[in-house]
């Protein structure tokens, strides 16, 4: 067809008037799946379900879905996260020390250093709990008894290699001549019952797990393994305060597969940073007595690698499981 | 009293009543589907419950839980496929009844026994929750060991050709229970590097394989399936005579189920298996067991539903979940900001009574549903096998894959299907294997925990535990009873000969 001058002019006006077409892009194309490597109802699951709605508010266009992928103490879920496509639509929840200690025990299909670390949400210190009318009066009392009768006091935890077990090992290392008899249980629920029934002398489980029982007056807490006192347990002194230099617990956070696109990673980290300081989230966390310790991006990564190094050293010195 | 009435009034709210009805129906449906049971459904629905009020979500979840325990028995009876692990004991006698043409009877008594068990446990929960919760504290590792031993002790007598074969099957079950990471040492046993086995052999694939697939393979290999003489009894529902006969097993099942449910970590499945053993032990019609005993359906069904109420006791009174399903309910509550514990009874009695009311309602709903639809469901047993079994197979594969998206569990199910077929060919019964698998890990773990607690002084340790000693004593008495009675008979015979 013949190009008239009027035609060219019209084309020019049209070109100027046309707005650039907005293609659908991350994170709005489809829901972002977050693999939780434990069955629903546990601490990691709860952490994910509580923080994600707040992150969603700070990341326009994103929708998060939790998918539980339990098995092998969180190995299955973590491997699924690590080996997923790094397109920004898959994230995973992780907990330490399981993240670092499982590779010591068996071959795994992920590498701790290569995950993309997004944010840490919770840092739940371990605590030493006894039933209210227990003859053990204080931490010093416990340590004295353990010194006099090495291996005679039963120390319940939530499993071999769990954060609670590591608290016990670190205490035994920090205080000379102290030894306990380790009694593992299948989770915090049977352990708490065993402590309440007096079947084990002392139990180690996290502050968030023992808090409710403590407030109801069923447990006494001899010490907790945090860096400082917990606001929900203001009367409970830390191990460090009482002369035992041990800081240990469980950290729960969110990671992504290695090789995640930079832009998506930065946006996600920013959204988590905003969510972690969002007053609504903090109010939720307080209502649920979740011990929040927000760390994002590189800070989180350094913390994980630091803990990994320390655990590798502990394992090299005295492995807590036969290979 | 006001709180109680206030709780009951909660049912007048159409939304809550609607949630209870919906929950019950959903529960019965998923309970019937093989593989996907109450706990998987609650896990999937957890996010939905966050948006609604605590009372409504508890009512809904409690209704699903109750419904699923009943629903599992439908497929257990009709196609030998326990839809929920808690129905595995029901399948033993229930399916035999269906084969005899008594499906309607089995379904009907299952509905009634379940409802009675469920209501009994809710009443116990209302009256005695804090007391029962405290009694649960007395159970530590030695007591769990004694309980597991007690549970396994009747294995020799359950089904199959001979006590020896049953013991072999039970031993195989206990051996299977050792697969996976050991609790007390952290070592992986018998996993051969398969990730799917790290947590052990799951019971869902084993149950579906042993019961449903084995039956299917068996039927497939029978070229000449005679049209079974369909007695009119197929659609007969139980009458007063049957209820009177089952009264003892129902009460026994309800009591055992409530108690076992209240023990943390033991739930409906263990309750049903132990109740099956005890129902048989105390039955006046022992010879019927293995050929379709109606008491063998009533007892376990009463037990698995009363375990629901039982499991709610430590969950609500202590915040310690009584079973894996209640762990999910507990999580849903916590996310809503409701922290269960003794203070809940003082601070929010209306919430608690609302839960009780909805559970009572759920039990009544499935009772009515069950009785009315028993005739309808019973007709499924008349569907030609060529149509029925492929459908069951498809549902089974979905059910085995579904909970953990794991093909490994599907392969496991197929393997146990073959095992189940071999069992049938050689006169072994699957029941002792299931009991061994379910109770085996409890037995081993609690023994090792006890030894770790007592260290060298374990003999004295056990001697100092009255509950454990009592249970062990009953176990020994139960095992020795046949010999003692034979000895007594011989002595009596000898005395009579001397007198003559």
Characterise this structure.
Chain A: It comes from Teichococcus rhizosphaerae. Chain A: Keywords: Signal. The complex is a heterodimer of chains A (323) and B (500). Chain A is α/β, with parallel strands linked by helices and 323 residues long. Chain A folds into two domains: 32-123 and 251-317, Bordetella uptake gene, domain 1 (D-Maltodextrin-Binding Protein, domain 2, 3-Layer(aba) Sandwich); 126-224, D-Maltodextrin-Binding Protein, domain 2. Chain A is 40% helix and 20% strand. Chain A contains eleven helices and ten strands. Chain A has helices at 5-17, 43-58, 75-82, 98-105, 139-148, 163-174, 188-196, 207-215, 262-276, 279-287, 297-317; strands at 32-36, 64-68, 90-96, 116-131, 154-157, 181-184, 202-206, 219-224, 249-256, 292-296. In chain A, strands 1, 2, 3, 4, 5, 6, 7, 8, 9 and 10 form a ten-stranded mixed sheet that branches. In chain A, strand 1, helix 2 (43-58) and strand 2 (64-68) form a beta-alpha-beta unit. Chain B is mostly helical and 500 residues long. Chain B has one domain (2-464). Chain B is built from 20 helices and two strands. Chain B has helices at 2-9, 14-32, 38-50, 54-79, 88-99, 103-136, 141-153, 163-177, 203-221, 240-262, 268-281, 295-318, 324-335, 342-347, 349-378, 385-401, 407-425, 430-454, 458-463, 466-499; strands at residues 180-181, 188-189. Chain B has a two-stranded antiparallel sheet with strand order 1-2. In chain B, a hairpin with a 6-residue loop joins strand 1 (180-181) and strand 2 (188-189). The longest helix of chain B is centred in the N-terminal third of the chain and has 34 residues, at 103-136. Chain B is globular, with a radius of gyration of 23 Å. The model of chain B is unreliable at 226-232 (pLDDT under 50).
């Amino acid at each position: 067809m013949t190009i008239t001058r009027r035609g060219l002019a019209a084309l020019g006006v049209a070109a100027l008037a046309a707005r650039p077409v907005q293609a659908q892009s991350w994170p709005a194309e489809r829901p972002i799946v977050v693999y939780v490597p434990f069955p629903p109802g546990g601490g990691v699951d709860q952490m994910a379900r509580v923080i994600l709605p707040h992150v969603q508010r700070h990341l326009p266009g994103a929708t998060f879905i939790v998918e539980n992928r339990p098995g092998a103490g969180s190995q299955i879920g973590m491997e699924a996260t690590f080996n997923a496509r790094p397109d920004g639509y898959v994230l995973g929840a992780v907990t330490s020390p399981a993240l670092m200690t499982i590779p010591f025990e068996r071959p795994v299909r992920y590498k701790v250093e290569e995950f993309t670390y997004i944010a840490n949400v919770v840092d739940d210190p371990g605590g030493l709990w006894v039933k209210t009318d227990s003859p053990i009066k204080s931490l010093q009392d416990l340590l004295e008894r353990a010194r006099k009768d090495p291996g005679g006091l039963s120390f319940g935890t939530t499993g071999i290699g769990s954060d609670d077990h590591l608290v016990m090992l670190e205490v035994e290392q920090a205080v000379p001549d102290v030894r306990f008899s380790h009694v593992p249980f299948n989770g915090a629920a049977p352990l708490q019952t065993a402590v309440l029934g007096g079947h084990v002398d002392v139990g180690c489980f996290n502050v968030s797990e023992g808090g409710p029982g403590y407030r109801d007056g069923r447990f006494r807490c001899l010490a907790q393994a945090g860096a400082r006192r917990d606001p929900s347990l203001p009367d409970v002194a830390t191990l460090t305060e009482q002369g035992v230099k041990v800081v240990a617990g469980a950290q729960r956070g969110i990671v992504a597969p290695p090789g995640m696109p930079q832009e998506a990673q930065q946006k996600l980290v920013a959204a988590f940073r905003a969510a972690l300081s969002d007053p609504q989230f903090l109010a939720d966390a307080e209502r649920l007595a979740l011990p929040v310790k927000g760390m994002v991006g590189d800070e989180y990564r350094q913390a994980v690698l630091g803990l990994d190094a320390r655990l590798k050293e502990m394992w090299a010195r005295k492995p807590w499981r036969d290979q | 009293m006001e709180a109680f009435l206030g709780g009951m009034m909660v049912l007048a709210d159409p939304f809550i009543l609607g949630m209870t009805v919906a929950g019950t129906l959903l529960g019965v449906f998923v309970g019937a589907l093989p593989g996907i049971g109450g706990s998987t459904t609650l896990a999937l629905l957890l996010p939905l419950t966050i948006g609604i009020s605590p009372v409504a979500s508890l009512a809904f979840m409690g209704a699903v839980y109750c419904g699923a325990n009943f629903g599992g028995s439908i497929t257990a009876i009709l196609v030998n496929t326990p839809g929920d692990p808690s129905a595995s004991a029901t399948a033993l006698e229930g399916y035999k009844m269906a084969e005899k043409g008594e499906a309607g009877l089995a379904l009907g008594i299952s509905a009634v026994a379940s409802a009675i068990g469920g209501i009994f446990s809710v009443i116990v929960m209302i009256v005695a929750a804090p007391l029962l919760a405290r009694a649960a504290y007395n159970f530590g590792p030695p007591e769990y060991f004694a309980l597991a031993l007690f549970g396994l002790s009747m294995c020799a007598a359950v089904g199959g050709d001979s006590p020896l074969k049953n013991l072999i099957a039970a031993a195989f079950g206990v051996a299977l229970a050792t697969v996976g990471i050991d609790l007390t040492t952290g070592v992986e046993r018998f996993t051969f590097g398969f990730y799917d086995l790290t947590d052990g052999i799951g019971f869902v694939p084993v149950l579906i394989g042993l019961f449903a697939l084995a039956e299917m393979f068996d039927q497939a290999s029978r070229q000449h399936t005679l049209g079974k003489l369909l007695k009119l009894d197929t659609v007969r529902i139980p009458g007063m005579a049957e209820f009177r006969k089952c009264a003892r097993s129902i009460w026994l099942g309800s009591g055992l189920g409530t108690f076992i449910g209240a023990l943390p970590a033991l739930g409906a499945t263990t309750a049903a298996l132990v109740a099956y053993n005890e129902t048989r032990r105390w039955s006046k019609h022992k010879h019927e067991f293995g050929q379709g005993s109606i008491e063998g359906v009533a007892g376990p069904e009463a037990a698995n539903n009363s375990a629901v109420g039982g499991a709610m006791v430590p969950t609500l009174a202590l915040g310690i979940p009584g079973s894996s399903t209640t762990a999910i309910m507990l999580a849903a509550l916590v996310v809503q900001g409701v922290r269960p514990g003794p203070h809940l009874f003082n601070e929010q009695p209306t919430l608690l009574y609302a839960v009780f009311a909805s559970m009572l309602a759920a039990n009544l709903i499935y009772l009515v549903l069950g009785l009315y639809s028993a005739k309808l469901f019973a007709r499924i047993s008349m569907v030609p096998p060529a149509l029925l079994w492929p459908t069951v197979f498809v549902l089974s594969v979905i059910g085995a894959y579904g909970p953990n998206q794991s093909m490994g569990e599907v392969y496991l199910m197929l393997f146990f299907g073959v095992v189940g077929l071999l069992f049938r060919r050689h006169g072994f019964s699957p029941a002792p294997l299931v009991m061994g698998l379910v109770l085996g890990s409890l037995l081993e773990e609690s023994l090792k925990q006890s030894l770790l607690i007592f260290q060298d002084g374990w003999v004295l340790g056990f001697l100092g535990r009255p509950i454990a000693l009592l249970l062990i004593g009953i176990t020994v008495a139960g095992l020795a009873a046949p010999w003692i009675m034979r000895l007594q008979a011989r002595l009596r015979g000898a005395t009579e000969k001397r007198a003559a």
